[in-house]
Amino acid sequence: MTAATATPMQATRPGGGAVKGATVALVLLTAMNFVNYLDRYILPAVQEQVKGEFHLSDAQIGTLTFWFMVAYVGVSPLTGWLGDHFRRKPMIVIAALAIAAMNFFTASVHSYWSLNVRHALLGLGEASFGIFAPALLADFYADSQRNRVLTIFNMALPFGAACSYEGGAWVAAHYGWRMSFVSSAIPGALVGLAIWAFMREPARTGEVSKTKADRVGAWSLLKNPAYLCAILGYAAVTFSLGGISWWMPSFLHRVGGYSIESAGGVMGPIIVVAGIGGTGLGGWAAQVWSRRTAKALYLVPAISAALTVPPALLCFFGPRSVMVPSLAVSVFLVFLGTGPVNAATLNAVPSNLRAMAMAGQLFALHIFGDMFSPALIGLVSDHSNLRIGLGITLITFVLGSAIFFFGTRYAPQLHDGVQGAPA
142-174: per-residue pLDDT in tens? Predict the structure, then answer.
C-alpha cells in the first residue's frame, strides 16, 4: 500500500502546498523539537561526572539509556493510536510540560536507581511528542512538501544536541551536573505554553479514507515495503548514531585527552555546523532530486549512511590528529538523510495511519536501533577498549545503506495537493 493509492485526493488548497496556520505550527514544533533533543543529550555531556559520583561501570552508564528507551518504545503503540483518534495539540502540550517536569525532578536525584526512573519517565514525554508532531505537520503540508518541512523540523536535532553537549557540559563544570538538567526545563515549559496559545489543530487529510484505513488497520503497515524499508534502514543508522552520540564525549575525554568541559566544547560546534549543514544540504538535495524521481527520499539516506563509514573509521582508529576533523565529516554526512527518511516514512502510509506509522518508526528505531547500542558499546569497552566498542557501529551504517537502496524500488509517487483544512 502506497501513499498514492491509500490517500484519495480531496479539494486542493492553494498557498504553495500548505493550509492556514502551517508556518506557525512548523516554527513552534521545531522549537519544541529543539528542546526535545536538548534534554536527550544532556546526560551524555555530563555522564563522566555521573559515573564518578555513583561509581558506575561503562555498562551501567550505557544502561541508563536502555530504560529511557524501554519507556519510549513501550508507550509508542498507545500514543500512536491516540494520535490517530484524538486531537493532537492538547497531547503535545501535555508532553512538553511533562518533559519540563522530569528535568526539574532531576535536581532531587541522588541514586542510580532514581536516575533510571527519571530517565524512563522522560522517555514517556519524548515519545509522545515524537509521534504527534510529525503526523500533525503532515496534515498541514502536501506530500511533495514534507521533505522540506521535516528537514526544517529535524534541524532541531543537531542544534539541540550541540547546545546540550556544550551548554550542558559548561553548566555541569560550574554548577554541577544536576543543574544542567534543570536549566533545560524552563525553555521546554515556555514552548509548551506557546503551542497551547498560538498553534492551530489542522483537519486530518484524507478523511474520506478513514473507514477504509481503520478497517485495514495498523497491521497493513507490516505489508507495506516502502514503509518497512524506510523505518528499518533508519533503525540501522540510529543504532550507529545513538551509540556514537552517547559515547563520543567520553571518547574525546579518554582517547583524545580533552577535559569533560572541552569535550562538550568540541562536540557542540561540530554538531551545530556539520549537523545543521548536513541536514539542510540533504533536504535540499532530496527536494531537487525528487522532482525527477520519488526514489530520492531513499537514495539520499542510502548514500549518506554509506559515505559516513570511511571518516568514522578514521575517527575511531586513526591518529589523534585527525580525530576531530574526521568526526566533523562523519557528522555532516550522517545528517544528510535525516529529513528525507522522515518524509519517506509519512508518504508511504495512508493519511489516517500517520501517527501509528510514526509510532512504528519510533518502535523500530529503538528496538532495533539505539536502545541497546550504548549498553553494547559499553560492554565491549569494558572487555577491550572504547575504540573497538565504537567500531561495531560501522557495520550497521553499511546495513542501513543497503536497506535504503533496496527501498528505492517501492518509493511511492509524490503529489502537490494539500488535503483538508484547519479544524
Answer: 777 888 888 889 888 888 877 887 788 888 888
Q: Tell me if 212 is assigned to some domain.
A: no
Handedness of CA 6, 12, 16, 18 (dihedral sign): negative
Residue 213's pLDDT band (boundaries 50, 70, 90)? very low
> What is the model's pTM?
0.71
**Residue 191 domain-assigned?**
yes
How many domains in the chain?
A: 1
**Domain extent for 347:** 3-7+19-204+220-410
- CA pair distance 364, 352, nearest whole angstrom: 20
CA distance 134 to 291: 22
Residue 420 clears pLDDT 80, i.e. is over it: no
DSSP classification of residue 86: S
Residue 422 lies in a domain: no
Strand partners of residue 141: 18
CB 357 within 8 A of CB 412: no
User: How far, in Å, are 221, 373, 388 from residue 410 at the CA level?
Assistant: 14, 29, 36
d(CA 96, CA 304): 31
Judged on CB neighbours under 10 Å (0-12, 13-18, 19+), 65 is buried
Residue 184 lies inside a defined structural domain of this protein: yes
